[in-house]
Amino acid sequence: MEPSLRAAIDRIPVPHDQARVLDAGCGPGGVFPIWAARLGSTGTITGVDGSEAHLAAAQHLVERHGLQDVVRLQVADLTQDLPLPPNAFDAVWIADVIYPSDFADPVVLTQRLGTVLKPGGTLAIFYGNWLRPLFLPGYARLEHLICATKEFAYADTRAWEGALHPEMAAAWMRAAGLHDVHVDVLPSRHEQPLPAQVRAYLGQHALPNYYGQPLLSHGHRVGLTEADRQLWQQLTDPTAATYILDQPDYYCIASALLVTGRKP
After folding, report:
1. What is the Cα gyration radius of the chain?
2. The pLDDT of residue 162 is above 90
3. Which of 55, 60, 89, 203 lies deepest, with the highest CB count within 10 Å?
4. Are strands 71-75 and 44-49 parallel, antiparallel or unpaired?
């Protein structure tokens, strides 16, 4: 959620003037406005992504926010050497990108990103959308089981375990030769009345997809019972009086992982 994203970007050291930041795997450019506010009028952001469709969406965002003088976009396949000069950026930001299904060896990619950092520059690896959230207050047992189904789903589709798991990003950085490696966990908390964008995220994405899909496909592997499934339906049916997002004391907490390292 956005508060943890903003907090993460605020923690990354950059020069006060003419800072250069690389957003590796920038997707549709959702963090460009946040980075632009962080860097001020003299900073620049280079966004690279392997998807031309993502970059087209990012270009629309750049124009909508008037960031044409701040953001430069470029096609780049992160599985290959980057078409960028070495020692060029004060910070490299990569968010929700490094998964073993896409990168067989995260250390190799981490080394590749370190190459384009200036000496003393910071690499920031951010994961914002999966770290054991609290979306079902009062139903800890059910939520614990659902989170376990998610890990089964990730293990099946992304093959992450042990050294390949995103929780090991600090080890990737040390293996890539970065120094001063630091791990932060950054929470976002919201309570009633929920901001419209938070309610939309929870109701349209997090509950039906992020939780609901692995529950249906992997619930049997963690012992979810028919009673558990019925409880889930009661809590997540927007037409029911038991819909959890309509409860007056509802709140949610999501935690993001930020790992930073400095190029010597």
Report:
1. 20
2. no
3. 89
4. parallel
| pTM for this model (two decimals) | 0.90
SS3 helix, strand, coil % of the chain, rounded to 5?
A: 40, 25, 35
Domain that holds residue 162: 2-262
Q: For 177-185, what is the mean pLDDT?
A: 96
SS3 call for 104:
coil
Do residues 152 and 222 touch, judged by C-beta distance below 8 A? yes
Domain tally, the chain? 1
- For the chain, the residue count is 264
**pLDDT value at residue 62:** 97
For residue 227, is pLDDT > 80?
yes
The CATH number given to whatever domain includes residue 221 is 3.40.50.150
Helix (H, G, I), strand (E, B) or coil at 5: helix
CA distances from 194 to 30, 76, 244, 254 (A): 21, 38, 12, 14
pLDDT band at 163 (very low <50, low <70, confident <90, very high): confident
How many CB atoms lie under 10 A from the CB of residue 130? 17
**Which residue from 61, 63, 58, 102 is spatially nearest to 79, judged by alpha carbons?**
102
**Sequence-distant (≥ 6) Cβ neighbours of residue 123 within 8 angstroms:** 91, 92, 94, 110, 113, 114, 117, 173, 178, 260, 261, 262, 263
Bridge partners of 73?
47
Instruction: Report the candidate in 5, 249, 1 with the shortest Cα–Cα distance to residue 136.
Output: 249
